[in-house]
Amino acid sequence: MFSVTDELKDNYSGVFQNRIGFGRKAAVISIDFIDFYTQPGAPFFGQGVVDAVIASVPLYAAARRAGLPVIYTKVVYDAAGTEGGMFVKKIPALRAFTADNPLAAFDARVTPEPQDVVLVKHHSSAFFGTPLSTMLRVMECDTVILTGCSTSGCVRATAVDAVSHGFRVIVPAECVGDRHQSPHDSALFDMNAKYGDVLPVAEVMAHVEKHVAAVAA
Q1: What digits encode the pLDDT tens for the residues 167-214?
Q2: CA angle, 19 then 153 then 209, to 5°
Q3: Helix segments in the chain, DSSP class H
Q4: DSSP characters over 65-84
Q5: Is residue 2 very low, low, confident or very high in pLDDT (cuts 50, 70, 90)?
Q6: Which residues are catalytic?
Q7: Does residue 195 contact residue 162 with C-beta atoms inside 8 Å?
Q8: 146 pairs with which residues across the strands?
């Protein structure tokens, strides 16, 4: 799923990387799959993000068939970028994430459907400054399946906040992407070690398909 050295594996063995598994009900979180990251020539473009979008399409479809929530996030700022606070000061290119910028639209391959939820966030974590935690509890979800971008940024930040809020974290490795392989691999290793379970998307799909079968029964 991701590349790490044997020395690093040995260093973490027996201390980190305990598996927590799925809970009773999961929600799929789609983090910032917008054209800023998926259109060639866009300032934040990464081929790894495009690959993650493609891998996420069947997962979203299966989740909807199973009646599991699919919750999208996107970043939108005011023209001055003040809503982003110090985050925008650190990364001034984020000021382009305004509602009137065509690149702020969701990638057409994973456009939200009417039953899906869309949240606007201003910082890395999908939990910070949003009602996500409250919504998940009302929906009786105890597990979040994290997809989106970037692996080392908003996905990792969401994983940290999710486990801090008491949710089980599942990350299908193929469904998250970054601009470069090295931070992607490092973030996957870190999340798997400390905050949740990084799994092959096929294993996550198998779990979701069980819910699909239960709905059909």
Answers
A1: 999 999 999 999 999 999 999 999 999 999 999 999 999 999 988 888
A2: 45
A3: 6-12, 35-38, 47-65, 85-90, 132-138, 156-164, 181-194, 201-216
A4: HTT--EEEEEE-B-TT-GGG
A5: low
A6: 154
A7: yes
A8: 29
